[in-house]
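Agenda item 2: zinc ion complex prediction
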Amino acid sequence: MNIQNIYTLAIESSCDDTSAAVLCNDKVLSNVVARQTIHEEYGGVVPELASRAHQQNIVPVVDVALKKAGITKNQLNCIAFTQGPGLMGSLLVGGSFAKSMSMALDIPLIAVNHMKAHILAHFIDEEGFDKPTFPFLALTISGGHTQIVKVNSFFDLEIIGETTDDAVGEAFDKSAKILGLPYPGGPLVDKFAQEGNPKAFPFTKPKVDGLNFSFSGLKTQILYFIQKNVAENPNFIEENKADICASIQHTIINILMDKLKLAVAETGINQIAIGGGVSANSGIRTTLKEAEKKYGWKSYIPKFEYTTDNAAMIGIVGYHNFLEQNFSDADVVSKARIEF
Ligand code: KG4
Ligand code: ZN
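Presented output:
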């Protein structure tokens, strides 16, 4: 065995994407994601359907990941998998598969926290992408979470702010639903926003103490705003779609930026790394780049394929745990909610 080259197989199945990746040290050799489209007709992820689809996808996805990486399963040094947080039925499929494979191959098993992985995805070795240096602040924005995390090292991450209700991705998706857009609506709001005036409809920002967030009030505000205007003009949404989307996105970005500014002031750290599905948002990306010039921040925006749920981010955490010999026992349990 060439110990210079550590081959990690990573499995991610926390929600509705089945993903497997193979890494050689901190480089990604393959990162395969099978998206589940079945949920679109229900307007949200149906947990039971998700776990059944994971069961169908897991074997072919792992097989393709190994083939694309050009290695055989016998070359693997360890298997990393998402322990949580996520949907229990979905987590169990990936977890059981990872356990069986690590037992069959007699190689270490490494349980990974999905939220930490969204942050540590920045340490994947990728041409053209800088890695942050410790300590830095991470803004994790996804369909399930909104957190500001102080990252002191690979293994010392501290949540300093989080949402008290909806996640920012939910704010995007629920707003999109009110506008009659299909699930998940976040990318569509982003698309329409690019053609609209962000100041067309001023929505008020919630008042939340400290570094925490709240998005449920904004959702209600948008709902009432749309109901009132559609009552006066049934074509209101169609006629103003771009401006509505731009105004919603502008408000959400302002909420995030206010808290980031506060976090920078409180910690004295001005390196900001974003992660999670919502970091694909073009408005957030532009605003963070502008903040580099405006406030002297350094921002880190991951490669697009590592922002949404993917196994490569689980693999990079697995690799760093392998180096420290931090292994999990075979009786490690999947957890829908998990301590950070
Ligand atoms: O991290 P992710 O793939 O899954 C988890 O929630 O863990 O994030 C999915 C979320 C969804 O809410 C989706 O609407 C949102 O990310 N999203 C976006 C964009 N792309 C994905 N929201 C706004 N703008 C986007 N371009
Ligand atoms: Zn995620």
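Discussion summary: DSSP finds nine helices and ten strands in the chain.
Owner for follow-up: CH.
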